Every structure is written in C-alpha cells, then in structure tokens.
Amino acid sequence: EAGVAQSPRYKIIEKRQSVAFWCNPISGHATLYWYQQILGQGPKLLIQFQNNGVVDDSQLPKDRFSAERLKGVDSTLKIQPAKLEDSAVYLCASSLNSGGATDTQYFGPGTRLTVL
Amino acid sequence: KQEVTQIPAALSVPEGENLVLNCSFTDSAIYNLQWFRQDPGKGLTSLLLIQSSQREQTSGRLNASLDKSSGRSTLYIAASQPGDSATYLCAVKDSGYALNFGKGTSLLVTP
To answer: Which residue of A has its CA nearest to B48?
Structure first.
C-alpha cells in the first residue's frame, strides 16, 4: 500500500514570496491533515479536512495561509506572502476517519521550507 | 487547552539498556494517546496507540502505558539498539479530534 506522498521535499524562498505544497493521501482515507513543525517543536495542526469539507482550521493563519482539497483526494497548502517565521517542516497526514478512538494518522515525509 | 509535556528532552544510553520515556498531559478527557517515532528528514511513524479505556499496549520491545486519571503515559523500550535512535513524540487526541503533540524526546543509543 502506497503511503502519503508530498512534494516538493525541500523549498527555499525569500520572504514575501509565495509557495505551495502538495499532498496525496493514502487511497480511501477520508480525513487529511496539514501540520506545521518548527525545529525543536512537536507538529501543530493547521487544518483538517473530512472529504471536501474543513473540520478544523482554528490554528491556520488565514491572512497568509490557504488550503484546499479538491474532489476529496489531493490537497494543496499555500503561503502568500511568506514570513521568516514560516520556516518549518510541513507535514501532511491522512486517516480513514477522524472520529474513532482507534483512528491512526499516517504521515508523509514532509516538506522542509526555508524562508530567507 | 491541552498541553503535552515530554521528559527528558534528550537521552543518551549505551546499547542494551532498558529505558523509559515520559509524557504528561493536562486534560484527562482524551480519546487516545499515541507514541510516534521521527527519524531525521522523515515523517512520523506510529508506534503504539492506547485507547482511553486501555491501560497499556505492547509491540515487540516497546510497551506503552496510560494512566488517564493522573495524565501520564510512559514508553518503555527494552534492550535498546542503535537503530532505536530517533525522536519519540507523544500525542494526545482529545475532544477536538486533533492530535496534540509534545516536543519530543531525542534518543541516542550508542554501540
């Protein structure tokens, strides 16, 4: 079974530029998550999708971050314009469903973003 | 707001030792607790998931326990090996359905 795919793996941009990340979840997984992991910290949830709909985006900086999940499969996360503090690893995860006590999240390899 | 704390932040042990990693959380109203492993430059791999009604889970040399009332979990690694070197993250799933992560424990097992 293929895992969660993410691209690109690395990205270096200058502040105020825009950037987009792509995620392809495990086939059949209804729930997709985007996390931000700053160096030395645990991952922090940015947004959670259940199929096409947003379940939780309370920690997404909506003035500069946006995300979409078209057709309930692939997802893109965009930052525009980027700030220095956005330097982090962006992790995508997927799970069969979000509500179960046994629901396990499977993570992709992440995209390491450096903002100069 | 759920706060998850992991102690110690870093740990170095010689090969063959048994070791314990600690995790504490502030809100006991949880659905489950998971332990993840993160290797440099890679994503997270789920090691063990303990449901709120369970007390422990075991997988090979790993054993995780959960004391929900005191807000604590421990990950026990038996007979550690250099291949166990990684960062171990504890995450709690609460009523918001999101995973709340600790900062992790960086483990180094020396030959």
So the answer is: A104
